[in-house]
What does this fold into?
Amino acid sequence: MRRNIGISLALAGLAFVAGLAPLAAHHAFSSEFDAETPVRLRGKITKMEWINPHAWMHIEVKTEDGTTQNWMVEAGPPGALVRRGWRKDSVKPGVEVLVEGYRAIDGSNKANGRDVTLPDGTRLFAGSSGTGAPYDNTPR
It folds into this structure.
C-alpha cells in the first residue's frame, strides 16, 4: 500500500513538473526584444506559421540598396490573432504587409510584431498581451 502511494506521488510530481515546462519556456518581451529599437518592415509574406505559443511571419524586405533581407516576426498566439480579426488567407505568401514592431536584442533580422497593415489598409494587432512589450494591454 505504501509503495503504491509512493509511486502515485512520484507520478503526480512528474506530471506537475512536465506541465510547467512549456510555461518556463515562454519568454518575456524584454528577454528577447528591445523596446528602444522600433522597426518598420515593408515586405512580402514568404511563410506564415500558425503555431503555439506564438505565430511567426516570415517576410522578405527590400532594403534601400536593392538587396533583400529575410525577417522573422513574432506575433501572438494563433487563437488570439483569429479573435482579433486575422484570417489564414489574409497573410498568405505573396501578400505585402507593413509590420511595425521591435527588433531583437541580438540585432538579428527578427522582430516582435506590434501592428500589421494589410494591402487594403486593414490594421491588425499582432502582439501578445502580458509580455512586457511597450503599450501592453492597450486597446487597439
Observations:
- The helical segments are 2-25, 29-32, 78-83.
- Residues 17-25, 136-140 have pLDDT under 50 and may be disordered.
- The longest helix spans residues 2-25.
- The two ends are 58 Å apart (CA to CA).
